[in-house]
Design brief:
Layout: E1 17-19, H1 25-35, E2 41-43, E3 47-49, H2 51-60, H3 67-77, E4 84-90, E5 102-105, H4 111-133, E6 145-151, E7 155-157, E8 160-162, E9 165-172, E10 175-181, H5 186-189, E11 195-198, H6 205-212, E12 217-222, E13 228-232, H7 235-242, H8 245-258, E14 263-271, E15 278-287, E16 302-307, E17 309-311, E18 314-324, H9 334-344, E19 348-353, E20 359-360, E21 363-364, E22 374-380, H10 405-410, E23 417-421, H11 430-434, E24 439-441, E25 445-456, E26 461-465, H12 478-495, H13 502-519, H14 537-552, H15 558-565, H16 567-570, H17 577-594
Parallel strand pairs: 1-3, 2-15, 18-19, 19-22, 22-23
Antiparallel strand pairs: 3-6, 4-5, 4-6, 7-8, 8-12, 9-10, 9-14, 10-11, 12-13, 14-15, 16-26, 17-23, 18-25, 20-21, 24-25, 25-26
């Protein structure tokens, strides 16, 4: 464990204070930039808690670890009433810049309460990191998380505290991109309501001045409640903001000096009235990949999407289309299923409606865990006249080449293509072009087992279907099997207590377990008999016996009783679907045995 290094006097925000080893890339990036001593900018130093404490805390628990002692020392650096930011600093942020956690903290002077608040924020950093690790194959087993505590650069506006300007400057498709807001940089990082300038517009002060006059709201820290407020931009705020624009011009010029043929830089910045230079609060080196001069070329198949809002260029081909939000439905829990599908498959096309990129419970709904293995991501912008439910009013705009910038905040990968599309009212729905589903998951997830191609040029993109959709031969649907599997399991357990029906109970449980394995099989479509061909001889014989017992006792199921009373009564020739499924199951088991 590294030793605590403290300057001779309290210079929080002026000199680095370090605890532990392995500060993480966010912290190290700022230290590296500060050493360059560039004109026109100032790095905002902070307190670094190395990832060594993360490993220590995971062993002992935060309350019992040395981290508690460190926090008491950290609080001695902080001034009462002056906001600070608690930020994650992973030792490997290859999946994206700043994708984990940032929270704000206003020290109250109550040492017990401040210690509790600081500890909770640190634990939230670790929790978010570990939640991300579950589905992140890009991390090694030794990945850890450091913490960076920085003062907030800003000014007082009555009861609120905020910088006059915040933003992000980086490269998108190897071209300059500036995201800018008045107030805290939360809106600039998630791009929900940021002004976005690209290419030569980044270097146009008059255009930026005009655009800033269109902003109406800003995020700020409430110094009384310590919460995050959205406040109206008054004439006073606007005047104080515009007077600081020369500092932004200096920052842009300094950023341009960092560019080399091989590398670019991602900067998050804040500008206040006191400092003569803009503060850099995050610096990350990015490998430059010049946009390929790809041409859309002749059509190979059927057009599914076309658009002009692109991130990353090139051509990707793959198989499998996952559409979360099919039928214009929306259910946030479906994203949990998308994350599991992303873990199971590679090289698929993910289609998402714009609402999934909106803020949900204070954080973006879509994360890298949902598309890290995808070949491409398509975001559909819908025209709306009324505010959306649950406060999820999307703000993306794919008609002016600005809506896809939030995608760059989720990943630094240049291999995953992004295309934002804004269909016209007269355009056919994607589902109509795709045709019959291969499978349905969750509430509104459609899956099509089909070959596709995505081509992104610097100015436009296109998605083509290269084959016909593969539709399962059988008529059995996943929701049916899910219901039958649950019903047979429940009935089976209840029959175990009866000697008379013990055999039936065991057979129902065995079949329920077999169907559970089928439902858990990764498959682009839904295969109602997945895995049968891999069963051993003894397993086949055991299942055959169990199915015959279930067929004899199928009358015990509630769904069978409903079928007899309702459907069979009106359609005498109808067959009970579960009975048909079990008979087909028997037939396939026999075929598997004969083919060996």
């Amino acid at each position: 464990m590294g030793e605590f290094t403290q300057p001779a006097e309290n210079r929080f925000g002026k000199e680095w204070v370090s605890f532990g080893d392995q500060p993480g890339l966010k912290t190290q990036g700022l230290i590296d930039l500060e050493q360059k001593k560039m004109a026109g900018i100032k790095v905002l130093p902070g307190i670094s808690i190395g990832a060594s404490f993360y490993f220590e805390a995971r062993k002992k628990g935060t309350e019992d670890s040395i981290l508690t002692q460190v926090n008491q020392e950290i609080l001695s650096f902080l001034s009462v009433g002056k906001p600070v930011a608690v930020r994650s600093s992973a030792t490997d942020e290859s999946g994206g810049t700043g994708i984990y956690y940032t929270s704000f903290f206003v020290p109250s002077g109550n040492s017990e309460q401040d210690l509790k608040t600081l500890s909770q924020m640190q634990e939230n950093v670790y929790w978010n990191f570990e939640a991300e690790l579950v589905n992140r194959e890009s991390f090694g087993k030794t990945a850890g998380m450091g913490i960076l505590i920085q003062p907030l650069a800003g000014d007082v506006f009555n009861d609120h505290f905020m910088p006059v300007l915040s933003g992000v400057i980086t490269l998108v498709n190897d071209e300059p991109a500036l995201r800018l807001v008045i107030g805290l940089g939360t809106r600039a990082v998630d791009t929900s309501e940021a002004l976005i300038f690209k290419r030569e517009r980044v270097f146009d002060p008059k255009l930026i001045l005009t655009a800033l006059n269109t902003l109406r709201e800003a995020d700020a820290i409430n110094l009384k409640t310590e919460g995050l407020d959205t406040i109206k931009i008054t004439q006073e705020i606007r005047a104080r903001t515009l007077s600081q624009l020369p500092k932004l011009n200096q920052l842009v010029n300094s950023w341009q000096e960092t560019l080399s043929p091989e590398n670019g830089h991602y900067w998050e910045f804040a500008i206040n009235e006191q400092s003569p230079e803009a503060f850099i609060v995050q610096n990350a080196k990015e490998k430059r990949r010049p946009a390929k001069e790809t041409e859309l070329g002749p059509l190979e198949g059927k057009v599914l999407f076309e658009g002009t809002d692109v991130v990353n260029t090139g051509t990707r081909k793959g198989r499998g289309i996952i559409f979360a939000g099919a039928g214009r439905g929306f259910y946030i829990k479906d994203l949990e299923i998308v994350a599991r599908l992303n873990h199971q498959f590679k090289g698929f096309l993910l289609i998402l409606p714009d609402v999934f990129f909106s803020q949900v419970a204070g954080r973006p709904a879509v994360e890298l865990t949902h598309f890290s293995n995808a070949a491409a991501v398509i975001e559909i912008q819908r025209k709306r006249e009324k505010p959306q439910f649950f406060g999820l009013q999307p703000t993306v705009d794919h008609t002016r080449g600005r809506g896809g910038d939030h995608f760059t905040q989720l990943t630094n990968s240049r291999d995953i293509l992004f295309l934002g599309v804004a269909p016209n009212d007269y355009d056919p729905e994607p589902e109509d072009i795709l045709g019959p589903l291969s499978a349905k998951k969750g509430s509104f997830i459609g899956i099509w087992d089909v070959d596709f191609k995505v081509v992104n040029t610097p100015k436009e993109g296109r998605v083509e279907l290269l084959s016909e959709v593969v539709v399962p031969e059988h008529s059995f649907k996943e929701p049916e099997l899910t219901h039958w599997q649950s019903e047979m399991g429940d009935l089976g357990y209840s029959l175990l207590e009866s000697k008379e029906f013990l055999e039936a109970g065991e057979a129902l449980l065995q079949m329920s377990e077999a169907m559970r394995h089928i439902l858990n099989q990764p498959h682009l479509g839904f295969e109602a008999f997945a895995g049968i061909d891999r069963l051993q001889k003894e397993q086949i014989e055991s299942l055959q016996k169990a199915i015959n017992v279930v067929l004899k006792n199928i009358y015990m199921l509630g769904s069978y009783d409903d079928f007899i009373r309702l459907e069979k009564h009106y359609v005498p020739e109808a067959d009970f679907p579960l009975e048909e499924y079990l008979k087909e199951f028997l037939k396939r088991l026999s075929t598997t045995t004969k083919n060996r």
